[in-house]
Design goal:
This protein has 309 residues and is an alpha/beta fold. It has 14 helices and nine strands. The chain folds into two domains: 227 residues, Malonyl-Coenzyme A Acyl Carrier Protein, domain 2 (3-Layer(aba) Sandwich), CATH 3.40.366.10; 63 residues, Malonyl-CoA ACP transacylase, ACP-binding (Alpha-Beta Plaits).
Length: 309
């Protein structure tokens, strides 16, 4: 029996004409997007087919699109009698996808949360320019030290994706300056991330207050499959604890490397990415212990189904 974990991606994996190999024939995808579009009040299917890209990249639309994509792929997985994973986890926004698929949150409720979450995040940049950078090949303690230089907490470590890749975000000028310092301290590469919002930074604290307010009226049940959260690397079953983690998640560091380490500590070495891209799969490439599979198109979906079942 193949034990595996399901990984759900976050913002930044979207592109025009994504999921095209599924959408041509598969009713599950068409119906899931139709349901989401009716709830959001915007034709998400038309948007991912034709763009424009600037609207797809607006968090108000990006977040429902990615949630809907992952949920549709998961439903397709279940239609083909795909096995249940031992664990689920989501990178940032992907945590909501994991909770929906684990039947902890209703799809309609999650759509409401992530649509508003996206809108509130987008508003943060109305009064200031923000930047997100990937620092490749520099020790996290050096990066932490550089971020601490900004006393007003305008630069944060947004995500520790692997030993080799750490994301920083915050105020545009300060992140730019911090990335130069990282380069001067030995970083191999500094890469631009296609996001204009200061994800998982202290600048997001006002958004966390809004999320807290929304979650008060949302029912969250015990996940049927354990979901490892971003902020504590824990599988919570209590509704209030899940909500607290989602509130903190907005401005806290995504501890992705620790999540992958946690899964491996349970003797699980097969990872299946449920989403429209293969970003999380690529992060695992250097880990020789892992078998990493993705479902970004029908061909890879069927390959993963065969290997796991």
């Amino acid at each position: 029996m193949c034990l595996f974990a399901m990984l759900f991606p976050g913002q930044g994996v979207q592109y025009i004409n994504m999921l095209s190999s599924f959408l041509k024939k598969e009713k599950i995808f068409q119906n899931t997007f139709k349901e989401a579009s009716e709830y959001i009040g915007y034709n998400l299917l038309k948007l991912i087919k034709k763009g424009p890209l600037n609207i797809i990249n607006n968090s108000k639309y990006t977040q429902p699109i990615i949630l809907t994509s992952s949920f549709a792929i998961y439903k397709f997985w279940k239609k083909y009698n795909g096995k249940n994973p031992s664990f689920m986890c989501g990178h940032s926004l992907g945590e909501y996808s994991a909770l929906v698929c684990a039947k902890a949150i209703k799809f309609s409720d999650a759509l409401k949360i992530v649509s508003l979450r996206g809108q509130y995040m987008q508003k943060i940049i109305l009064n200031q320019s923000c930047l997100v950078k990937a620092i490749i090949g520099l020790d996290k303690n050096i990066i932490k030290k550089i971020c601490r230089k900004y006393a007003s907490k305008t630069v944060s470590i947004a995500s520790i994706n692997s030993d080799n890749q750490i994301i920083i975000s915050g105020n545009k000028l300060d992140v730019h300056q911090a990335s130069i310092e990282c380069k001067n301290n030995g970083a191999k590469f500094i890469l631009d991330i296609n996001l204009n919002i200061p994800i998982h930074s202290h600048l997001m604290k006002p958004v966390s207050k809004k999320i807290e307010s929304i979650l008060k009226n949302i029912e969250i049940k015990k996940p049927r499959i354990p979901v490892i959260n971003n902020v504590d690397v824990k599988c919570e079953s209590n509704s209030e604890n899940i909500k607290k983690a989602l509130i903190k998640q907005v401005y806290k560091t995504v501890r992705w490397k620790e999540i992958i380490d946690f899964i491996q500590s349970k003797n699980i070495f097969t990872m299946l990415e449920i989403g429209p891209n293969n970003v999380l799969t690529n992060l695992n490439k250097k880990n020789v212990n892992l078998i990493s599979l993705h479902t970004s198109n029908k061909k890879h979906f069927l390959q993963a189904l065969k290997k796991i079942n």
